[in-house]
Predict the 3D structure of the following.
Amino acid sequence: MQNKTIAITANTCWYIYNFRRNTIITLLDHGYSVIACAPRDDYTYMLESLGCKYQDVKIDKSGLNPIKDLYTIFNFYTLFKTNHVDVVLNFTPKNNIYSTFAARLCKIKVINNIAGLGTAFGSSGLINFIVRHLYRYSQKEADFIFFQNQEDYSIFQRLGINKRSMDILPGSGVDLKRFKFQEATDNGITRFAVVARMLFDKGIVQYADAAKILKTKYRDNVEFLLIGFIDDLNPRSITSAKMKEWVDEGHVKYLGVSDNIEDILGDVDCVVLPSFYREGVPKSLLEAAAMGKPLITTDNVGCRETVEDGKTGYLCQPRSVSDLCDKMELIINMHLEDRIAMGKAGRELIEKKFDEQIVIKKYLMALQTVLNK
């Protein structure tokens, strides 16, 4: 049995509970003490119900105030010192940077997970310049870094990070016991869904535009769902007003946020993510494929890893409404038997490459590696 204390940090309790629940359970089963560190939200009590300890952290997720960010570092430093933490597992961007700085001040081990680089490495400008340099200097202090795709791994290799302390994970993995294969049904309606934060760079506008075109052509024989969080305070987010406008037009249906996404996916024929964001590996696509749903996503960093083009789904051009329409029409006009075969191929791909147990085992090995240094 272990007697080491592991802190798991992210920018929301929602993230830790939904993406790292089974990791926490496994660590507890292996005798580690686990502290979940994130701002308090509606999922805090669900985290505590797993048997781990919870510590509140103040993180301004998308803010640019350096005073608040310095306070976040101090907050982490105090938390790590007070709780005698041995290793920190960081997730989400600001945690990967600021928690790493705090952990180094405490002389404790750090394992980071860089699940996509977002806009920082895909755009120019002063803010992006600063973020890139914060990534560079903070990650040189990490003991181990996990990436979710080869492109991000290569970027940090070029920045001089020791490749012996880096590895690539198959995204966050999928709980194959929860997301079970469910065969498509032939009810005369081809139902598409996007499961994502409602951000512009997730391709939400392109999806809504494609839905308008295809709804006009196929009418009641098609349906277009949107599932995910709207953040009216985020300038990159689709607003609630805009979503209402789309829904009122009758081209899309917005279902909000769901804690039981598998229940919704069971009735969906194809899951779409037209993202032009620098993704890690989108978990929503992996979960959908595990349930036997064909995928349509962009030939873009992180997204392309989830699809064998033409076999488990289709890749389309980023930002192209016409190409997205073309790929969606392939699904609409596909025979049910072919759609089922595509879904089965997707499930086989997930079982082979993206089982969550692969991810958890790599974390257990990384913990032993850094603790034995």
In short: The two ends are 19 Å apart (CA to CA). The chain has a mean pLDDT of 92. The longest strand covers residues 33-38. Residues 117 and 173 are 18 Å apart (CA to CA).
